């Protein structure tokens, strides 16, 4: 008799990702990395590649950890784990130590708990995310990990799409989370096509203890309100299948966004003069979606932080091209200034 369907589903998802990682390692020489893969990736002392799982102790990441612990030995992969203590709740250090002990009991090695200090930039959710990824990056570098697995599910993807829609952030925001992301294709999300209930069921049938973060139920957080109020209201109004449809929208949007980004990267060279300045007439001739991407690339390259550069900022710069009436220079995030001079768009540090 085989495993429970939920357990089989999570194991299959992890197995596929491990095969992808191993295929990339075998086809990309470490001395000449391609497609952005880091040359710092290195096998463990016993020669096996290292794959880490980020585990909070919640159902999604515990299910992911259990699947990795099961599948990795069959593929000669050394499986480890990192749990991050954000220090935002009383007793979080003890809870992180308990999660680490459970991961060790699964047979994962190395296992470590990383304590971080959460700042305030961008709000509490964004600050916690930034601190968490910084800790995961550090652990991956130190262990020479080929990949770090994250437990985001289809439900998380649907929430991300709705948040992007509410912010009016454009098609890239609607594309949600990628299956593969990060520097060197470090982060992998095996569960983006599985729902949250499947992960929880897999933990239940395997008798895996899980910790439900009270912050996930706190209405002070936007994602929590969306999860417990927004999505249920949409399903009540539109019927079941909203989560799956939103996740499908993310995949389709990502394909479109990737194609437009590639077009913009090519167009960037064709709209510059010999001195490298952007020519307004050539920018004007581009389709709006491509033009705005070229402008955003230029603003980020000049020092404007991507996370602080919103659609309205890019639209203000675009008006220097399509609605020129002698406007004054624009002050943008990161002390970047944009102005029009002699038919050229000048973007520089102010």
From TrEMBL:
<keyword id="KW-0819">tRNA processing</keyword>
<comment type="function">
    <text>Ligates lysine onto the cytidine present at position 34 of the AUA codon-specific tRNA(Ile) that contains the anticodon CAU, in an ATP-dependent manner. Cytidine is converted to lysidine, thus changing the amino acid specificity of the tRNA from methionine to isoleucine.</text>
</comment>
<keyword id="KW-0067">ATP-binding</keyword>
<dbReference type="Pfam" id="PF01171">
    <property type="entry name" value="ATP_bind_3"/>
</dbReference>
<keyword id="KW-0963">Cytoplasm</keyword>
<dbReference type="InterPro" id="IPR012094">
    <property type="entry name" value="tRNA_Ile_lys_synt"/>
</dbReference>
<comment type="similarity">
    <text>Belongs to the tRNA(Ile)-lysidine synthase family.</text>
</comment>
<dbReference type="InterPro" id="IPR012795">
    <property type="entry name" value="tRNA_Ile_lys_synt_N"/>
</dbReference>
<keyword id="KW-0547">Nucleotide-binding</keyword>
<protein>
    <recommendedName>
        <fullName>tRNA(Ile)-lysidine synthase</fullName>
        <ecNumber>6.3.4.19</ecNumber>
    </recommendedName>
</protein>
<keyword id="KW-0436">Ligase</keyword>
<feature type="domain" description="tRNA(Ile)-lysidine/2-thiocytidine synthase N-terminal">
    <location>
        <begin position="51"/>
        <end position="229"/>
    </location>
</feature>
<feature type="domain" description="tRNA(Ile)-lysidine synthase substrate-binding">
    <location>
        <begin position="278"/>
        <end position="345"/>
    </location>
</feature>
<feature type="binding site">
    <location>
        <begin position="56"/>
        <end position="61"/>
    </location>
    <ligand>
        <name>ATP</name>
    </ligand>
</feature>
<dbReference type="InterPro" id="IPR014729">
    <property type="entry name" value="Rossmann-like_a/b/a_fold"/>
</dbReference>
<dbReference type="InterPro" id="IPR015262">
    <property type="entry name" value="tRNA_Ile_lys_synt_subst-bd"/>
</dbReference>
<dbReference type="Pfam" id="PF09179">
    <property type="entry name" value="TilS"/>
</dbReference>
<dbReference type="InterPro" id="IPR011063">
    <property type="entry name" value="TilS/TtcA_N"/>
</dbReference>
<feature type="region of interest" description="Disordered">
    <location>
        <begin position="29"/>
        <end position="48"/>
    </location>
</feature>
């Amino acid at each position: 008799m085989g495993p429970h369907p939920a357990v089989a589903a999570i194991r299959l998802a992890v197995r596929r990702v491990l095969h992808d990682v191993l295929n990339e390692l075998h086809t990309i020489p470490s001395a000449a990395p391609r497609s952005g893969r880091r040359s710092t990736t290195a096998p463990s002392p016993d020669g096996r590649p290292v794959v880490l799982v980020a585990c909070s102790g919640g159902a999604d990441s515990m299910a992911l950890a259990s699947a990795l612990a099961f599948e990795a030995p069959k593929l000669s992969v050394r499986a480890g784990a990192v749990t991050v203590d954000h220090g935002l709740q009383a007793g979080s250090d003890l809870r992180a130590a308990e999660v680490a002990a459970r991961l060790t009991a699964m047979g994962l090695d190395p296992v470590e708990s990383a304590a971080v200090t959460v700042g305030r930039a961008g709000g509490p959710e964004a600050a916690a995310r930034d601190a968490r990824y910084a800790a995961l990056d550090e652990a991956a570098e130190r262990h020479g990990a080929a990949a770090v697995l994250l437990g985001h599910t289809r439900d998380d993807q649907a929430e991300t799409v709705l948040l992007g829609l509410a912010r009016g952030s454009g098609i890239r925001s609607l594309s949600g989370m990628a299956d593969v992301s990060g520097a060197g294709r470090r982060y992998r999300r095996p569960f983006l096509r599985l729902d949250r209930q499947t992960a929880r069921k897999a933990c239940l049938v395997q008798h895996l203890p899980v910790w439900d973060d009270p912050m996930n139920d706190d209405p002070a957080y936007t994602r929590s309100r969306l999860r417990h109020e927004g999505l249920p209201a949409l399903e009540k109004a539109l019927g079941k299948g909203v989560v799956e449809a939103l996740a499908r929208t993310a995949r389709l949007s990502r394909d479109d966004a990737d194609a437009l980004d590639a077009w913009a990267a090519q167009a960037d060279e064709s709209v510059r003069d010999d001195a490298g300045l952007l020519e307004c007439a050539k920018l004007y001739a581009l389709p709006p979606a491509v033009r705005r991407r070229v402008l955003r690339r230029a603003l980020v390259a000049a020092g404007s932080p991507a996370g602080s550069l919103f659609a309205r900022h890019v639209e203000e710069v675009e008006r220097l091209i399509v609605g020129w009436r002698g406007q004054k220079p624009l002050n943008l995030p990161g002390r970047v200034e944009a102005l029009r001079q002699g038919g050229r768009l000048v973007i520089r540090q102010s």
